[in-house]
Amino acid sequence: MKYTEFANSGRQVSRVAFGAMGLNCAFGKFDEGDMIKAVHHSLEKGVNFIDTARTYGDSEMILGKALKQWSGDLPFIASKAAPTGTCENNGWGIPNPYSTSYPKGSVTESVEESLRQLGIESLDLLQLHQYWSQYEGEEWYDELSALKQQGKIKHIGISLTDHRHDQGLSIVRNGLVDSVQTIINIFDPLAFDSLIPLCQEKKVAVIARCVLDEGGLTGFLKPDTTFPKSDFRNDYFEHGPQLEYIRRVEALKQFVPDYASSLAELAIKFVLFHEGVTCANISMHIPEYADENIGVVDKKPLTEEVFTEIRRHHRWLVNLYENKYFPREGEILSATGFKTD
User: Fold this and answer.
1) Over pLDDT 70: what percentage of the chain?
2) Alpha helices, DSSP H, located in the chain
3) 82: nearest Cα among 61, 112, 62
4) In which domain, by residue range, is 289 found?
5) What's the chain's average pLDDT?
6) In this structure, which of 60, 169, 294, 301 has its CB flanked by the most CB atoms within 10 Å?
7) 144-173 pLDDT, tens digit each
8) Res. 285 pLDDT band, cuts 50 70 90
9) Beta strand pairing call for 332-333 and 339-340
10) What residues contact 97, with CB distance under 8 A and at least 6 apart?
């Protein structure tokens, strides 16, 4: 495992992070005991950064059980404050006013519940889960600063909605946050253009998410692949459309095996190529996949030429979240972006 400093904190974190969204069974049903074992397995392999959220169902609760049973050093724990929405707008595709997404005191309530579920006294990082640039200067920052003074959180961050990496530029430039979480993958490398260089300059950590694009960049997707209704990906790839998604993934196979042993390895190497990316946040609730993902950091990186080739000629700026944000008539979305009955 390789490590890098988180922001300007002196704390070393693994360049591959355990993305805990999978602990809420968003990507299929798994036994709770097996998921706890998966957390321990990743920690034993050197992962020391775990990213979860208040809106990830039972994720914090399961992670709390895993931490209670863990005898090693406590990993760096990051969570996200839960936003609220309305029946008309859950706030992910189109912003709600700050007062709707985060009513006064709601961030504090979210943090306190996260601490209770996780069984810890302080979060290493608290991120505003649903951040829009017009929220800069709103009272949430004062609320998080107070939580920091109380010792309930150590660092303040934001998580940017879908592909809106540019929403974080102003607040990073003004030095108000310690970290930014955003989509960075082969199909969307735009954060490399402006956001990541600015974060490097300001000593702000960058947490890359959707590195494997919900698994699509691993090459598992076939024309007839379907998912259970409870699976987050049930209405994700089909709006690519799915056949075009598969065609573009197939085109990436030209780099395998000369530069990566698999498409998954290629996708992770691409994101971690830039030293401005602090860590790649990847679901690792299945140990065999975790081993593959973790092992990438110790392998030979991509060459500058291959990184540039992929960055320039394999980008595909399509928002696969569209149907989750703007569902068909008769479907209702919760504040988390999942369909509800």
Assistant:
1) 96
2) 32-44, 59-68, 98-101, 106-118, 140-149, 169-173, 195-202, 242-251, 263-272, 287-295, 304-313, 322-325
3) 112
4) 3-340
5) 92
6) 60
7) 999 999 999 999 999 999 999 999 999 999
8) confident
9) antiparallel
10) none
Token duo for residue 144: 């998080």
Phi, psi of 234 (to 5 degrees): -55, -40
Q: How far apart are CA 238 and CA 7, in angstroms?
A: 37
CA distance 195 to 173: 10
Q: Which residues pair with 156 in a beta bridge?
A: 126
CA distances for 255 relative to 242, 246, 249, 268, angstroms: 22, 16, 11, 13
Quote the longest CA-to-CA distance of the chain: 54
pLDDT at 324: 79
Number of domains in the chain: 1
CB 184 within 8 A of CB 191: yes
Phi, psi of 267 (to 5 degrees): -65, -40
Give the alpha-carbon dihedral of 99, 105, 106, 108, to 10 degrees. Answer: 140
Which residue(s) pair with 246 in the sheet? none
Average pLDDT over residues 237-252: 93
pLDDT above 50 (res 24): yes
The pTM (predicted TM-score) of the whole model is: 0.93
**Half-sphere exposure of residue 287: CA atoms within 13 angstroms, side-chain side:** 12
State how far the Cα of 188 lies from the Cα of 217, in Å rounded to an integer.
Answer: 12
* Sequence-distant (≥ 6) Cβ neighbours of residue 108 within 8 angstroms: 143, 146, 147
In the prediction, which pLDDT does 30 show? Answer: 84
Distance between CA atoms of residues 186 and 148, nearest Å: 35
Domain harbouring 33, CATH code:
3.20.20.100
The Cα–Cα gap between 272 and 182 comes to 14
Q: What integer is the mean pLDDT of 212-229?
A: 93
